Amino acid sequence: MANPRWAETSVPRSLPDKVAQLYYAHGLFCATYPFTVIVFAVSLVLVCSYPLLSLPLPGNLPQHYSAAVASNSSTLDAPRWLLSSSPSCYIQQVVMKSAVCPWNDDLKLTDAFRAPLAEVFPLLEAIQNYQEPNGSVTLGDVCMHVETAVSKAKKSSGVLPEYSCLVLSPANLWQLDSHRYRDDTNLINTIYTHQNLQKGKTSLAELLFGFSLKDTGIKRYPLRKRQRIIQFAITMVYLQHHKSYTDGLRERLMRLYPLHQAVDSSANSSLSPDYVHHVYYPGEFDYKEFVPLTITYLMLFFYIYFSVRKIELVHSKVGIALSAVFTVLASLLMSAGLCFFFGLDFTGSGRGREVFPYLVAVVGLENVLVLTKSVVSTPPHLDVKIRIAQGLMREGWSITKNLLTEVTILTVGLLTLVPAIQEFCIFVIVGLLCDFFLQTFFFSTVLGLDIRRREKIEPSQLFYHHYRYNPVRSSPMTRSHSVPRL
């Protein structure tokens, strides 16, 4: 006759029992095929982290956006960095192309550079002396005033503007003095003295010319004596966009330099001054940001190491601590790679992206210690597979319940319609799911391998220790004198 209690104990009736049975089956599978599960988990981590290779490090690429100066249209398509803050400065460039015309054969090689480049001085003087006809607005009223250069640029002292308007032009190479320019016998050498040959970085000469030197028409070693078109720009930095001032300055310069203005009218119409091109620089990557994060994960390693050091059934304390830290780091890389692949801009999400690595460490630490204590508290006489399965079964429902609660709370945060909060909630949800996956697949499997290794090294300690007990010695039976001899 069957036991009537078998149906009550074996068949799960409630949701926690069903979840516990699923964790039990999962624990048996991970303990039966440990290396397959570990290879699968590590491969998935690498695949999900692969999009991070496209992340622009050690710097962040600038982001661009064009908009009308006076636009009544909706700003829904504007990026968040433009809506959250106002521009730090406005930059306007006056581009000039000049050449010696007509070119005669009796001219020297340097004449192709000297006269066209000398036009920067009257152009700069016209810009600095311009004043609105109907007002008193000048360049000093709208420009950004700077003080002394930073310590890294002290070697360029005299070239960069100090205690004046931030206006950059090739004339800065000669301290805005036309007499020094005329007395300079080697213009090309003066220009290329401030040129940096390192790729990916803008040199001081290119910053003053407003172009890459290869686009200015000035070569380091010119060979042929011919006519050359020299191109340069005067870059002005404004604190505010004064439309009437910029329009008046543009008309003033067009009257001073009327050559080819009618021919280029069609080209100028496509570049309407009513549009402003916004450039957002997220900031250069600073390796010092990793210092507190590295200290946090080192503290996490030592905390887990000293926590499992008290557990005798754990064979490799260092290995378990390293596995826990790897679980946290891998979940962070997986979540960042997935969010980056699907277009989540976590580079500009404010303080959320800075808090998230520490949040993942705290959540991962709790579950790692819970799983470790649950597995080692199982009866030691059971097989390793059964112990892993029972450990996951005991804490499976509580881990799942906490995960669903956290995801539900974060899902409510998505309804706030605040872009920064929405991105942070999505990032945290993905991180929690990745951390849950690695804890149930990677860490629990590594923990089972560690316990199995200890059992192979000390098989006699599974049930009892023979060497702790003194051997029982046999002795002859003695008879009391009060008992009569038969």
From TrEMBL:
Parts of the chain that traverse the membrane: 23-47, 290-308, 320-343, 355-376, 403-421, 427-449
Gene Ontology CC terms: endoplasmic reticulum membrane; Golgi membrane; SREBP-SCAP complex
Subcellular location: Endoplasmic reticulum; Golgi apparatus membrane
MF GO annotations: sterol binding
Pfam annotation, one family: Sterol-sensing
Domain (SSD) ranges: 289-449
Major site of localization recorded for this protein: endoplasmic reticulum
GO biological process: regulation of cholesterol biosynthetic process; SREBP signaling pathway
Keywords associated with the record: Endoplasmic reticulum, Golgi apparatus, Membrane, Repeat, Transmembrane, Transmembrane helix, WD repeat
Protein name: SSD domain-containing protein
